[in-house]
Amino acid sequence: MNIAFLTLTPVIGLAGTALYTLYAGFALWMPLLMVGMYLAVGISICAGYHRFFSHKSYEASAPVQLFYAFFGAMAAQNSILWWSSSHRVHHKYVDKDWDPYNIQRGFWWAHILWIFYRNPDTPGSFENAPDLLKNPIVMWQHKWHKVILIVGGFGLPTLIGAAFGDPIAGLLWGGFLRIAVIHHTTFFVNSLAHTLGKPLYNAEVSARDNWLVALLTLGEGYHSFHHRFPADYRNGIRWYHWDPAKWWIKTLRFLRLAADLRFTAPPQVEQARLRAELRLVEPRIAVADGPIADDVRARINKSLAHLETAINLWRQHMEERAAGVSDSWRKTRKRSQLYVRQSRRHWKNAMRMLEQVPETA
Ligand SMILES: [Zn+2]
Ligand SMILES: [Zn+2]
Fold it and tell me: Where are the beta strands (DSSP E) in 15-146?
């Protein structure tokens, strides 16, 4: 079933849509329908299936959860329960045998081939998702997701097409083509985001940060950060990082439909970044024997020590803020930021010194 579905949808979606449109004519509503449905379904996968149901990175109100359940089912990526349970296994065993989309088995395995095989390690008891088993919306969707897919994923665009006078064009653009696009953009997170880019936050696993992949996946391309801090509601942490799912979640909070957005303390993010970088430059420091190496190491240690202080101050700032300790939390935050800046200065100096060392001994 999976092989047939995943082979036929792109053939009908690409070739079928192209041929039919050549034959029956093109209208602007067709790509608009496709993009509109792509956004509604795509955001339900990224901000819903992934960041809310799998990682609990924020609290979502019941109407939002129903939206995710309904439009998420239209992505033809199974139920929330199945998707999130597999995804939690991916995070726990990333790059190891039990990772369902283990990139070590090759690009195409991680992209799509894994879906073609029955996984003997998945008993279907969903024991890693007790929270989801207790969620009535999740359980309702688990029972009905195939019906929603047919009625909503194919029926709805056909109806919209009929309203414009061409139900088949609606089915092709909003149904088949849209599903093929959503499939492969989601699959890119498991294949491309574990292949292309830099391991900025954790050099020990295959996850990578890449803005191009973020563009293709509604913001899921900052994958090194995501694997290091999966409970963070953001994937792209800078304001200019392309992360529509993050902006969507912030908008929901503004509308009071979401709350408790979890995010990592900035000095902690900095610490992860420096540690990952340290692993990359370690061979060069090892080569640079003598007084230079000692100096570089001393500066790196100072930099990391300042970060440790910054993290403790940040923790204190959060406590003060929660307790409503007048203005003192602002001062504590400023002090934390000061230590981050000092850490950065030591780090930059260390890297500058390291540049004087020849690449190979
Ligand atoms: Zn991953
Ligand atoms: Zn994840």
Answer: 59-60
**Would you state the structure tokens that stand for residue 61, as one six-digit string?**
């109100």
- Give tens-digit pLDDT for 205-264: 999 999 999 998 999 999 999 999 999 999 999 999 999 999 999 999 999 999 999 999
Q: Which helix (H) or strand (E) holds 93?
A: none
Q: Checking phi first, is residue 19 left (phi over 0); if not, alpha (psi -120 to 50) or beta?
A: alpha
Higher pLDDT, 11 or 295: 11
Cα separation values, 313 from 68, 78, 337, Å: 38, 44, 9
CA of 257 to the centre of ligand 2 (A): 22
At 177, give phi and psi (nearest 5°): -65, -45
Pairing of strands 59-60, 258-259: antiparallel
Tokens at 118, concatenated: 């029955």
CA 127, 132, 134, 140 dihedral sign is negative
Q: Which ligand is closest to the CA of 207, given by its number?
A: 1
Give the ligand whose atoms come closest to the C-alpha of residue 56: 2
Q: How far is the CA of 129 from the centre of ligand 2 (A)?
A: 14
251 CA → ligand 2 middle, Å: 21
Give the predicted TM-score (pTM) of the model: 0.92
CA 186 to centroid of ligand 2, rounded, Å: 12
Q: Residue 320 and residue 33: Cα distance in Å, rounded?
A: 49
The CA 136 to ligand 1 mean position distance, Å, reads 27
Q: For residue 111, give both structure tokens.
A: 């992209």
**3-state DSSP call for residue 222?**
strand
